[in-house]
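B., you asked whether I could sanity-check this one before it goes into the benchmark set. Here's the sequence:
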Amino acid sequence: MNLDPQIAGIIEALDSGFPPVHTMTGAQVRAAIRSRFVAPESPEEVGEVIDASVHGPAGDIAVRIYRPASAAGPVPTLVYAHGGGFVFCDLDSHDGLCRALTNLIPAVVVSVAYRLAPEHPWPAAAEDVFAVTHWAARNADALGGDARRIIVGGDSAGGHVAASVALMARDRGAPALAAQLLLYPMISPNFDTESYLAYGEGFYNPRTALQWYWDQYVPSPADRGHTYAAPLNADLRGLAPAVVVTAGHDPLRDEGIAYCDALDRAGVPTTHLSYDGGIHGFMTMPMLDLAQQARKEVSGHVAALFVGTARG
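And here's what the prediction gave me:
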């Protein structure tokens, strides 16, 4: 497979500019990533954006609520966990992606500023997003959503959190989820897959960084056997239908594919969208044609799960 031409033109700059996170503290990494962030001059217009807070297991959790620019009646509600290796990124870093998803699905999107590692290790992030998912289900009408169409989603580390929350919701009996959206998720701490060996250096998301992320969020090897820490180890029967994205030049590609296969074996309706020319994180790079294509296609597949189910 070939690297997307636009990505090929910038991959060296992307890779060389990625900070050596494995040599830094969590606070240093967050400062470095935040310093690189440039907000767009003209963000995509949506119907409404509201910053709020939700009571969580360790205090209030900041959320950002997006409503679509146009929608006829109640729409699905997507509770979204941002990527960032469990350590960095925030509501601002994923503002552009959340704006696109709210308009394209369309859906109410509730973006969650969950607690970050290493100060707050596993399962803090998942418990925060689980709490917000409960809140979103209880308040669906007020949000302009539909309690029958609650989605949990995320990218990268956020995809791990979303997969964990889907398991938690099933195991704890609520809230009832209608779907899960996993964008190139971190699913299993196995660093010896074929894709890790092929793309663990030189493709923007290095193996050393990924290992460090796991060390920050799930530092105990014993905990890594828990199904909420490594969803690939879980009994996946009875989970909500899944839309899963993988990128061909991503060290996480193979674990994403393995998770799709495991979901299929468990009888979970699963849509796997593979972008062979992509790299990890490409959907948060709006200058890429591939990112725009993927955003539309992914949103279309999520919307298709609800055809004929809208509340009248």
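One thing to flag: The chain has ten helices and eight strands. Otherwise nothing jumped out at me.
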